[in-house]
Write a structure and sequence with these properties.
The chain is mainly alpha-helical. It has 4 helices and no strands. The longest helix has 31 residues. It is flat.
């Protein structure tokens, strides 16, 4: 991974953390949701600072390319978040009925 790309990833993740913290202070986001996004940003920071973590994890589970592992893991995490939000919406709709 190029040095410039690593710097861009770290800066973007840090800006996301600050943005979420600002939203928390203004009470514009639920704490449960903000914890998810803060952990997600922290994971991206770790992957950008230590790209060998992606290589190690890709080798561990048998994925050929570290980039494919990163895409696979991000898609998996976001699908879990979508499932949790769908469940929340379903419970709220059932409570109103």
């Amino acid at each position: 991974m190029s040095w410039m790309l690593r710097v861009i990833l770290v800066l973007t993740s840090v800006m996301t953390c600050f943005w979420i913290l600002r939203k928390i202070r203004k009470s514009q986001v639920r704490i449960e949701d903000s914890v998810f996004w803060l952990l997600f940003s922290l994971g991206l920071i770790l992957l950008s600072l230590f790209p060998q973590l992606a290589s190690w994890a890709a080798n561990l589970i048998g994925v050929v390319s570290p980039v494919n592992f990163v895409f696979l893991s991000i898609i998996f995490v976001l699908m879990l978040k979508l499932l949790m939000l769908t469940s929340l919406c379903t419970h709220r709709a059932a409570a109103k009925a």
